[in-house]
Amino acid sequence: MPRPIVVVADHLAVTGGSARVAVESALGLAAAGHRVTCVGGSGTPDPRLAAAGIAARIVAPKGGGRLDAIWNARAGRAVAQALAEAGPGAIAHVHSWGQSLSGAALAAIRDADTVGVVTLHDYLSVCPNGTFFDFSAGAICTRKPLSGACIARACDAKPYPFKLMRLARHAATHRVGRLFEACPDAIVLSALHRDAIAPHVPAHVRLHRVGNPIDVRAPDGPPSPRAADAPFLFVGRLTPEKGAIVLARAAAQAGLPVAFVGDGPEAGAVREAAPHAQMLGWQPPERVSELMAQARALVFPSLWYEGQPLVVLEAQALGTPAVVSDACAARDAVRDGETGMVVPAGDVDALADRLRRLAQEPDLASRLGAAAEAAFRADPPSLPAHVAALETVYEVAFAEQAGDGAGETAGAKAHRRAARERAVAAKAG
Length: 429
Known about the structure:
The protein has 429 residues and is α/β, with parallel strands linked by helices.
């Protein structure tokens, strides 16, 4: 049934994956008949929101800087006002809060006695740096979040004082904002994402698997044959956890052409490891699609628990096979040897071997690409399908939370009862 929905996200312009999903799901929900309002933390809202009749309230920054990420009282007031205006039956759907909205936005949802749902786009809900990745070691972190070993470890990509700030943000999110009391229904993006998060959330939290939507136009006519010297392609930030340096070394070892779309602090190291590489920087989406369609294969060598790498699905939609690491959720989207290849994360020799094979056997690359495209088209992760899955989650959340469902903790139930009593008293007064 149509409901008032308040979408909460740090950014309401497409500045990254979670922001894109927040904006596009808001548009899809509005198209499905829901009354959608958005609250964002900074920037100018995507103009498509206003065109669709979606009101967007921005909590303009006032110089708080990083302190806003720890506790932004203005954001809490903005969310509270949006929920009050939404009226009875509203659902708050949180996509992000860690950069500007803070735990204050979560506290507003909890205090309003509103049904809350959160999409866990990364691991910020359970890991202070949000990645389960130790940047000092260049490897996945297996320490228990907030244990003594976790707190003491300088795992962040930045100096240790930034880790302290992230610890403070984490404490505010859980001890004051009480994320999982505000939003006991949480969306994960993939099986790997669920398995990484599940051990670290309270028992009452209901985890729902809903993949992100993707819209890739099918190419007109049959795909053009790949050139004999078609490069292998990387698309993404050039940061340590993305593993671009692994691909650079593998391509250099195999003596094969490679192109990198993106930029970041590892750009110099990538260029040094593979002097022959094409360093293309960031490109418009249309150009990225062209490069994907022309590539020998997309390579996704991520070293961390990436929840749902959309670039792999985009390549598959274009008939380009993907070579992915076994550390990230891209492995869930690839059947090794059938629709692509899966390699051990960080293994330069293994990756170089797969690249050589694809270069030496063009028929293999074509077969894998065709199978990948067929698998994608058989069950495309479209926006309407995404919205339908969200509506199912909302109905479960509403039945459980609005009805004091058995899954909630006693503390959460008591808090909701008290909030309802305060609301009744305020109206009576």
